[in-house]
Design a protein that fits this description.
Blueprint lengths: L8 H24 L1 E6 L4 E6 L4 E6 L9 H39 L52
Antiparallel strand pairs: 1-2, 2-3
């Protein structure tokens, strides 16, 4: 920030470019990542990439009961589904871990790199808007009206 609390536009643009680059790198890392889920004590393993796409399934031969093939088929189907869901949970955790710094930065906790606390600025989330300018209607407000034919309907006193 410049003296007097004014934002330096060059600094803001540089910080936004740096954050965009970091975000693209994080997305690329996620796309290249692979995680495994398992079921049945490791009888079935599912490998999923960082985008949630199934990459591989491994079924241990011990999962197959040759004496009861019908039951075996159903058990394997259940194990494959459980292993895939386990892998998807691991991908969700990885995505949250990887993307959390970006979400926090935009929400006002950390701000953009080099510009902490931007979340309190109007339009960047987290803080109050411009004084005297009404914001969007509060959905819990019984007086709020979403009538598209009445532009003032969502603002009491303007109807």
């Amino acid at each position: 920030m410049e003296p007097g609390g004014q934002l330096d536009m060059q600094q803001l643009l540089a910080a936004a470019a740096a954050m965009q680059s970091q975000l693209m790198n994080a997305q690329q890392e996620l796309a290249e990542a692979e995680v495994q889920g398992s079921a049945g004590g490791g009888l079935v393993l599912a490998t999923v990439n960082g985008q949630g796409e199934l990459v591989d399934i491994t079924i241990d031969p011990a999962a197959i009961d040759v004496a009861d093939p019908q039951e075996s088929v159903q058990a394997i189907a259940d194990l494959v589904l459980a292993a895939y869901r386990d892998a998807c949970r691991a991908v969700d955790d990885l995505q949250q871990e990887t993307m959390a710094p970006f979400a926090a930065g935009l929400g006002g906790e950390g701000g953009l790199p080099g510009l902490p606390g931007l979340g309190s600025m109007p339009g960047l989330g987290g803080g109050p808007g411009v004084p005297g300018v009404p914001g969007p209607a509060d959905p819990s407000d019984p007086e709020a009206d979403d009538d598209p034919d009445d532009p003032g309907a969502d603002r009491p006193g303007l109807s």
